[in-house]
Amino acid sequence: MATIFITGASRGIGRELATRYLERGDTVYAAARSIEDLAPLKDQFGDRCIPISLDVTDGAAVDGLALVVTGSLDLLINNAGVIGPETPDALSMDYPAFARTLSVNTIAPLRVVHALLPRLREAEAAKIVTISSQMGMMAYAKSDRIAYRASKAAVNKVMQALATDLQPEDIAVMMVHPGWVRTDMGGQNADISVEESASGLMQVFDGLSLETTGSFKAWNGQTVPW
């Protein structure tokens, strides 16, 4: 059985992924800002669910994660994210909100990777996946939600570089588009359910290897153009 670390595990896609991995028999470090929101998972799955109170923008807390996680880590899922300011185009911007969007969606995933690298290096063929979005595609020229789009384009590049750097260590890295999902962020008019997205994502994660490291995939396995 695998050991998995998931950020943003208290709701939406993160919670569904945590639940499914626990049902599969894996051990899950479930991280969220409010540890109380993780209590139902702990109650249901016992010691295999390890709740962690974590604000991914708290640098000191993130840097100490390797002391919280014991033993090797097979899979890190950077799922925590924010939608950012609702700007109609790039001609207007809430700059403090833009900075927070970059902090959560771009900087935090890299810092989490750095913090947990000692545990990932202990595993055989460890994997790192980051929940991104097709809204960060450079070929997608729409300008609404530009802070979110920019943060996802940036994290894609960061993770692509990590894939290059970690390939010699047999650690594979992937960015994934979860689909337009019916969550608090995606809204109720979105295309697919949380269950459908999580099921597809797990298959994509299972298929990640050094041969596909650095790729950008959708929840259904299709390659997403940059």
Q: How does this structure look, described?
A:
- With 226 residues, the protein is of the alpha/beta class.
- It starts with a strand and ends in an 8-residue tail after the last strand.
- The protein is 40% helix and 15% strand.
- It has a single domain, classed as NAD(P)-binding Rossmann-like Domain (Rossmann fold).
- The mean pLDDT is 94.
- The protein is globular, with a radius of gyration of 16 Å.
Short description:
By secondary structure, the chain is α/β, with parallel strands linked by helices. Helix content is 40%, strand content 15%. It is built from 7 helices and 7 strands, in the order βαβαβααβαβαβαβ.
Report the CATH architecture. Answer: 3-Layer(aba) Sandwich
Structural class: alpha/beta
- Across the major sheet, the strand order is 3-2-1-4-5-6-7
Low-confidence stretches: none
How is the CATH topology named?
Rossmann fold
How many strands appear in the DSSP assignment? 7
Quote the beta fraction. 15-25%
The tally of domains stands at 1
Helix content: 40-55%
Overall pLDDT score:
94
CATH class: Alpha Beta
Q: Looking at the structure, what is the overall shape?
A: globular
- The radius of gyration over CA amounts to 16 Å
